[in-house]
What we know:
Layout: E1 3-7, H1 22-30, E2 38-42, H2 49-62, E3 66-69, H3 72-77, H4 79-88, E4 91-94, H5 99-108, H6 112-120, E5 124-128, H7 130-135, E6 136-141, H8 143-146, E7 154-157, E8 162-168, H9 175-184, E9 190-194, E10 198-203, E11 206-211, E12 219-222, E13 225-228
Parallel strand pairs: 1-5, 2-3, 2-4, 4-5, 6-8, 8-9
Antiparallel strand pairs: 1-10, 6-7, 9-12, 10-11, 12-13
Helix pairs in contact: 4-6
Amino acid sequence: xxxxxxxxxxxxxxxxxxxxxxxxxxxxxxxxxxxxxxxxxxxxxxxxxxxxxxxxxxxxxxxxxxxxxxxxxxxxxxxxxxxxxxxxxxxxxxxxxxxxxxxxxxxxxxxxxxxxxxxxxxxxxxxxxxxxxxxxxxxxxxxxxxxxxxxxxxxxxxxxxxxxxxxxxxxxxxxxxxxxxxxxxxxxxxxxxxxxxxxxxxxxxxxxxxxxxxxxxxxxxxxxxxxxxx
Length: 230
């Protein structure tokens, strides 16, 4: 059984902001069917992984989890420890940031095979924004903007654990969505657009929208238009 949670975005309480992903975080823990699951944070996409983990640690400890994360020095000095942490986790949470940076770190450290094993072991695999894109066939990403290699969002190939295309942080009237609509012209692509405070739960290819607010919905966009994702 494969278990994924694709999180479109939302504040987790950093810098005294509102905590917006509570419903999603509770559902992630529930998916393990355990009272005290082991939670592993992987923050390779972020330049601020330590402070990111500090916040996410509090959230998941309050939900009954035993938490840990992979430090940069572990990748270099203790690769076996890294792989063991991945295989022992009940939840692996890939944080947001730069999608390309995340993919590069996974490739550089030969971690795809061990992630494959974790998925086959029924580990819950969650991804926030860049982390969610990494889990899919493709995602509409700002990575090249962050790297000053482009002035617009672009499609980036993920690891294809889920054969779908997603666009996190969906806002109907945003510049990103206007760019996406333009890039979909004359293509047969269909993109699942996930707003902040919203996620897509996928268990054995069965999809469910998770949100704490019934008015927040996911959508599909294509050259034929927009419709609510069900």
